[in-house]
Design brief:
By secondary structure, the chain is an alpha/beta fold. It has two domains: 170 residues, 3-Layer(aba) Sandwich (Rossmann fold), CATH 3.40.50; 199 residues, Up-down Bundle (Dehydroquinate synthase-like, alpha domain). The protein contains 15 helices and nine strands. The strands form two sheets. The chain has a six-stranded parallel beta sheet with strand order 1-9-6-4-2-3, sandwiched between helices. The chain has a three-stranded mixed beta sheet with strand order 5-8-7. Helix 4 crosses helix 5. The longest helix is centred in the middle third of the chain and has 23 residues. It is globular and about 60 Å long. The termini are far apart. It binds nicotinamide-adenine-dinucleotide. The site of nicotinamide-adenine-dinucleotide (NAD) has 31 residues, from helix 2, helix 5, strand 7, helix 6 and helix 10.
Length: 387
């Protein structure tokens, strides 16, 4: 009976604001934990943020087992190793403090500690059999929105295939979202992760599965990101810009969790799996090309995106207004130094058939894309993205 109704899942309690990190101990105690597995990004060691988190947890009487071994664009075995450490440490809570790579590994580890097995067993949809340990996610990039999604994305070290563990069991219990933690992000990572957040918002809004919840969340995300991304890249210490970006990526993540993403993600996955191109960068290069392809199938929505990005669309027919969204995204991307072409990423053009094959295996984003994309269409988009 319930299957025929639309579901919107609300689970994660979000604590948002500058210096919110100080509530980490309180949140751990709320979740009844005396021992935690803390996964963190090694980059946070240098910024002092990791030390701060350790101190806060210890002051709250929480014992810490630490895992700093997550690789960027993580492999499935990173989650297995983290889970083993957590089991050995008899932890009751998992905290993921970092970008999407660390948060995804933390979410999967929490599921593995309670459910057993290997991360590879759970790649797919709804394959996690029971609840995992409680989790707190603390994003340090403004990009993935993983702190509020039910997804954890990994690459298989052997096959190089990239895929997600997608299960409501992975929704975090708490998202501790503190813009101060993103002040240390260098401009290039700010740019690529910010474009990733924008891609989530655009693709969830234009997804075939999009509905009223998605529209509210994703359009707000588009507004925030397009207003703040240039400032965050060029003035990294601008707290207001960092706050706007982190709220934008959070809302984009909620939109993504509700309606999924589209062709840019499907085309980006093999770039990550085969060439280790960072997810944000792959999406950033592809999204203007994918938008151009999708425009005829979603003119009204593209017109709304243009409006949300501050373009003057008043009185224009939807197709023309929509084309302003494509131009605005391409301009933003260029302004913040994102390469326009896959050539600039040193990917051989002759690999297009491998890329097409990989992209079409990412079935859900392909199905959600507003315009049909088969092999011929995927090849044409790649051709254009090579410039
Ligand atoms: P990332 O986590 O790989 O981090 C990128 C780089 O930024 C790393 O070198 C890291 O050390 C550094 N870094 C992180 N925070 C920093 C800080 N505050 N200061 C300085 N350096 C910092 O990048 P990401 O884009 O956040 O995450 C990418 C991963 O997330 C990919 O595996 C992608 O597939 C996945 N992803 C997941 C979801 C989801 O819903 N779960 C959504 C989108 C992407």
């Amino acid at each position: 009976m319930i299957a025929q109704f639309r579901r919107f899942h609300v689970k994660t309690q979000i604590v948002f604001g500058r210096d919110a990190i100080h509530s980490l101990g309180e949140l751990a105690s709320e979740l009844g934990a005396k021992a935690c597995l803390l996964l963190a990004d090694k980059a946070l060691e240098e910024t002092g943020v990791l030390d701060k988190a350790r101190g806060i947890l210890r002051d709250s009487g929480v014992r810490i087992t630490e895992f700093l071994g997550t690789e960027p664009e993580p492999y499935l075995d990173n989650a297995d190793a983290a889970a083993q450490l957590g089991r050995d440490g008899q932890v009751e809570l998992v905290i993921g403090m970092g970008g999407g790579s660390v948060m995804d590994t933390a979410k999967a580890a929490a599921a593995l500690i309670r459910n057993g097995g290997h991360a590879a067993d759970y790649v797919g949809l709804n394959l996690v059999p029971g609840p995992g340990l409680p989790t707190i996610m603390v994003p340090t990039t403004a990009g993935t929105g993983s702190e509020v999604t039910f997804t954890a994305v990994f690459t298989n070290r052997q096959t190089k295939a990239k895929g997600g563990i997608n299960s409501p069991r992975l929704f975090p219990d708490r998202a501790l979202v503190d813009p101060e933690l993103t002040l240390s992000l260098p401009p290039a990572i700010t740019a690529a992760t910010g474009m990733d957040a924008l891609t989530h918002a655009i693709e969830s809004y234009t997804s075939r599965s999009s509905a009223v919840f998605t529209e509210a969340l994703s359009l707000a995300a588009i507004r925030l990101i397009s207003r703040h991304l240039r400032r965050a890249v060029f003035h990294g210490n601008d707290g207001e810009a960092r706050e706007g970006m982190l709220m934008g990526s959070l809302l984009g993540g909620m939109g993504l969790a509700d309606a999924g993403v589209g062709a840019a993600h499907a085309l980006a996955y093999p770039l990550g799996g085969h060439y280790r191109i960072p997810h944000g960068l792959a999406n950033a290069v592809l999204i203007p090309h994918v938008m151009k392809f999708n425009l005829p199938a979603a003119e009204e929505k593209f017109a709304m995106i243009a409006r949300s990005m501050g373009e003057a669309v008043e009185g224009l027919p939807p197709g023309l207004a929509g084309s302003l969204a494509v131009e605005a995204v391409a301009r933003l991307s260029r302004d913040i130094g994102i390469p326009h072409s896959l050539n600039e990423l040193d990917i051989p053009r002759s690999d297009i058939p491998i890329l097409v094959e990989g992209a079409l295996k990412v079935t859900r984003p392909v199905e959600n894309n507003p315009r049909f994309m088969g092999a011929k269409e995927a090849e044409a988009i790649f051709e254009r993205a090579f410039g």
